[in-house]
Model the fold of this input.
Amino acid sequence: MDIVTTPQLIAGNWKMNGLLAARGEIAALAAGLKGRARLPEVLVCPPATLLHGFSGAVAGTPIKLGGQTCHTAAAGAHTGDVSAEMLKDAGASYVIVGHSERRTDHNEANALVAAQARAAWRAGLSAIICIGESEAQRSAGQMEKTLADQIAYSVPSETTVANAAVAYEPIWAIGTGKTASLDDIEGAHAFIRARLEASLGPAGRSVRLLYGGSVKPSNAKEILSTRGVDGVLVGGASLKAADFLAIVDGARVAV
Ligand code: PGA
Done:
């Protein structure tokens, strides 16, 4: 039996979805969590515009808030950008960095992702550092090389279990309804874990490794029970409190 030392992390990535009225979903999530005796760590990453508005709704609940990206600077002439300090000020304790949609849509490369993680730490946030191969890389036999490069260049050497989690999100499984098989997930996580240990030493053994890509209520429990999975990063199915609660219920909690 696995010994659970750090709680699993159930993180919701709302992406560019949600208006202030979605506070009702946060209230419903809080109400649903109330009756549960043992919980994993529960995190919601809404658009930055909603962090402040949600911070009242999560006060006194186990729900944590996070941002979805951050600039590397604390402040300055960077029109349209948001710093890690600003996310923290608005109520965040986490920030996602290196999501594949940021890497693709905004050309964010590994070195920038590492700098964003360090910016998160400067501001006192934990970073969720995303990695994952595309369908083309996978079919060209480049999956391991892609992951190894992403680990080498976007996961900083100062990464620890206290300041970060790494999320494995195969791009072909994001928003497609195509979940990686449990064998694929176990295999990829074992590979990533070995690389993290090689690059980070003992910290690489304990940093949480999340899976993301079409996680939903119907597959969350089996994914969260898979060897090497320390949590999930959930997109579409995190938007509705009822679905997200069902995913939280699939977590392994320490007894
Ligand atoms: P999905 O997104 O759950 O909608 O596939 C996951 C993610 O992009 O973090």
User: Anything to note?
Assistant: The chain has one domain: 9-17+42-48+81-249.
